[in-house]
Fold:
Amino acid sequence: MMDTIPTLPFKQYIHDTMPYRGGGTREETGKKLYKLSSNENLLGPSPLALEAIRDNLHTLHEYRFENDQLLREAAAAHNGLLPSQVVTANSGMELLDLICRGFVEEGSEVILSSPTFMAYKNFANLSGGSVTDIPLRSPDFSLDVKGIASAVTDKTRLLFISNPNNPTGSLIPRKKMDVLMDILPEHVIIVYDEVYYHYVGSGDYPRAADYINQGRPVIGMHSFSKAYGLGGIRLGYAFSTPEIAGYLSHLRRPFMINTLSTVAGIAALQDTVHIAATQQLVAKEKLFLYRQMDELGLSYWKSEANFILFKSLGPVAAFVQRMLDQGVMVRSADVMRAKGCIRVTIGTREANEAFIDALKHSMETFL
Structure:
């Protein structure tokens, strides 16, 4: 009989990393409500994607696609790139996992700028990397380019940029991104997350492909979970230079993307009607919410995405619960390091009116 229990071969940095937790779901509440907490498309899924899914249900007994060639071809054509520059995955989360596994190891460093999507930190830590946070500047959440440049060391591997940024909705203009690109050393890869690009109204918006076409070490990230309304199928893709994309492709498993996701993604990329309707809805309803928030005297930030960040009327957890009690789900932005703030998705007029009504009732509680 053994006197001692052998030590398990845990990697300490994995053992110590807390799992990332996203927003709540309807199933967790057990009641009918307006879900304005996850930046989803309240118009629903792309109709062309739904049609493609229905047309392919009868093929589920087959290993339909051994690889993702057709999906990569569609994504490449959509962005003016080559298929060899595209890497597909089961959601943006899996893309972050692939990127961090590919470039981060124990002793590596990555940089992010909060408030932002903190899954960046989670996956970097799971790969053994340490994270340096160069916060966005107050009060407009602008990027601290000089701060980022000063934080770079010879161990820095990745810089995470969210543009438009989640949860602030703020935009990094072209001139500032150009400066950042010019001052970063070549060994630092920029992970340029532009999953909300469909909603940008500004003409001063630099795209990831702009820099990739210049040969810059940039990885762009797109998702089907937002404007295309396909969060439930968990599909996304990254794109970069042929060299970087080719390297990341070595981390992919065979038969990685399922049949229904493949055909849905290809169809969604062609659904310009659904995208246009989504953009029109968000642009119109964003102005409606701005007017309502102004009338209520709410402190908020204007957004280039499909959500708005605003100051909580009281303790964040209590406010979120109070809104939930009235049938409206909103998201605490504390976890994204926007302390004391709430993020609300821009929905249909019915959903937005329900949000404003719940907000008015909450003001009676907290003010």
Q: What stands out?
A: The chain has 14 helices and 13 strands. The first helix runs from residue 12 to 16. The CA atoms of residues 197 and 322 lie 32 Å apart. The radius of gyration is 21 Å.
